[in-house]
């Protein structure tokens, strides 16, 4: 599947990043694909109420994919008797059972579960059921929990969809990626356009109320007309959510060997920016709220699980290459199956050290909060930020972003979330008795501010680190 989950912040931008090129304006949001050392973070140390579960199986590896996956073969759709799948599920359940929990906070059942991959819809419902039952027995599972699953066209039928729904899956993320046969083939996708329309029909006929379509922009040979058609057909399908991702050329992938970012046949930076603006305009006109850089939804259909990430709340993660955030610590699992099995055994034996000798760094935490908050339409809550990191840092951020309010890349909002006019910002001295109390939120404008999100977040990092 596409990058639809979250990368720990410190793996995306260093504390003193160089301003990235515009073509990388969308900060990717996927779990880390490599084992990283544990780093301590002073974010909330509450008991997690969300869990990410990595199901790594795909029919084949797409040309842009650098995720930890297990390719089963292009024709693989029936995996009930595949030992690679059943064995992995057993190890996954063992990891869940071996996970330590805070005995003083055992009354917090899971509110969200996200099955990502890979292609989770390749896993038989009976095995998904065993994972959910293991989670329920270990942590508890709310009756109103959002249970999301990434599903690829061509990997499920009406019966399988119904079985998943009976297990509690109530949110589907459908990996369409494009509505052109040519582009699907050029990406190495295992499905074609016929399977896309069949999958949409299945999801709708089964009565899935909460479902998303994933699309990729800036693909090789993709034209503005193609992108407009994909957006139009996605809107006509009437999902409650649409995720729009900018293609990332990763080292080690087939695309990474074939193409250089910004060079033909990839769209140039200007074209990529126009694709992003087109998505913002067309989806906005169709009454989708642009609530996060890559995410649009009908009112009330924001992905609850992803909000766990954007609000920097703790979460469990299980499975190959996944990264958890528990007790203020981010911890990544191995991305190779054999190494992952050894990790689970060590976890069961009590020999996995999930603690850190590193001190909690306030600067790192402040960077986390800024980066996550500025990804969202809500933006950075200055009152909370000031309470955690000091009013002087708030004033420094306001001063640094002041020119970008005039250029309309950044928006200052008051307590009622009413935009503060450019003239008021230009004339303000931003002292504690004036604008600190008046400016309650900083957010990036849509779409121009989101387009420059890397640069604008890097600016904040520089202020925090100074």
UniProtKB/TrEMBL annotation:
Name the lineage. Eukaryota, Viridiplantae, Streptophyta, Embryophyta, Tracheophyta
Ranges of residues in domain Radical SAM core? 43-286
Q: Which organism is it from?
A: Cicer arietinum
Q: Which GO terms describe its molecular function?
A: 4 iron, 4 sulfur cluster binding; coproporphyrinogen oxidase activity
Question: Could you tell me which NCBIfam families the record lists for this protein?
Answer: hemN_rel
* PROSITE patterns assigned to the protein according to its UniProt record, in alphabetical order: RADICAL_SAM
Domain of life of the organism in this record? Answer: Eukaryota
The stretch of residues making up the signal peptide is none
A single GO CC term for this protein reads: cytoplasm
**Which SMART domains has this protein been placed in?**
Elp3 (SM00729)
| Protein name, UniProt field | Radical S-adenosyl methionine domain-containing protein 1, mitochondrial
GO terms under biological process: porphyrin-containing compound biosynthetic process
Family from the record = Belongs to the anaerobic coproporphyrinogen-III oxidase family. HemW subfamily.
Role: May be a heme chaperone, appears to bind heme. Homologous bacterial proteins do not have oxygen-independent coproporphyrinogen-III oxidase activity. Binds 1 [4Fe-4S] cluster. The cluster is coordinated with 3 cysteines and an exchangeable S-adenosyl-L-methionine.
Coiled-coil-forming residues are none
């Amino acid at each position: 599947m596409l990058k639809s989950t979250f990368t720990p912040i410190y793996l995306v931008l260093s504390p003193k990043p160089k301003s990235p090129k515009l073509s990388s304006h969308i900060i990717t949001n996927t779990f880390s694909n490599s084992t990283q050392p544990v780093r301590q973070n002073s974010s909330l140390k509450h008991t997690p109420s969300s869990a990410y579960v990595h199901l790594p199986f795909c029919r084949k590896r797409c040309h842009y994919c650098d995720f930890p996956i297990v390719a089963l073969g292009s024709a693989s759709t029936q995996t009930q008797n595949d030992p690679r799948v059943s064995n992995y599920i057993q190890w996954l359940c063992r990891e869940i059972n071996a996970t330590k929990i805070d005995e003083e906070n055992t009354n917090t059942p899971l509110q969200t579960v996200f099955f990502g991959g890979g292609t989770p819809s390749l896993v038989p419902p009976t095995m998904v059921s065993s994972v959910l039952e293991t989670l329920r027995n270990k942590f508890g599972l709310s009756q109103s929990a959002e249970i999301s699953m990434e599903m690829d066209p061509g990997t499920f039928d009406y019966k399988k969809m119904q079985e998943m729904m009976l297990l509690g899956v109530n949110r589907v993320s459908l990996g369409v990626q494009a509505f052109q046969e040519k582009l699907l083939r050029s990406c190495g996708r295992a499905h074609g356009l016929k399977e896309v329309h069949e999958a949409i029909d299945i999801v709708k006929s089964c009565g899935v109320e909460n479902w998303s379509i994933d699309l990729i922009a800036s693909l090789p040979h993709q034209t503005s007309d193609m992108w407009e058609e994909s957006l139009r057909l996605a809107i006509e399908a009437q999902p409650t959510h649409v995720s729009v991702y900018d293609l990332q050329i990763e080292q080690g992938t087939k695309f990474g060997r074939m193409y250089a970012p910004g060079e033909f046949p990839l769209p140039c930076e200007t074209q990529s920016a126009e694709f992003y603006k087109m998505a913002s305009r067309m989806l906005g006109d169709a009454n989708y709220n642009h609530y996060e850089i890559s995410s649009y939804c009908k009112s009330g259909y924001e992905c609850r699980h992803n909000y766990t990430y954007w609000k920097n709340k703790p979460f469990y993660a299980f499975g190959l290459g996944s990264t958890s955030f528990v007790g203020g610590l981010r911890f990544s699992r191995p991305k190779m199956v054999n190494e992952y099995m050894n990790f689970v055994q060590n976890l069961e034996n009590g020999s996995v050290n999930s603690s850190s000798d590193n001190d909690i760094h306030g600067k790192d935490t402040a960077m986390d909060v800024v980066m996550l908050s500025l990804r969202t339409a809500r933006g950075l809550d200055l009152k909370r930020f000031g309470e955690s990191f000091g009013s002087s840092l708030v004033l420094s951020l306001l001063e640094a972003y002041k020119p970008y309010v005039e250029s309309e890349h950044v928006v200052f909002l008051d307590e009622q979330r009413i935009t503060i006019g450019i003239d008021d910002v230009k004339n303000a001295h931003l002292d504690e008795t004036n604008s600190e109390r008046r400016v309650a939120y900083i957010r990036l404008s849509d779409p121009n501010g989101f387009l420059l999100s890397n640069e604008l977040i890097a600016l904040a990092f520089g202020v925090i680190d100074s």
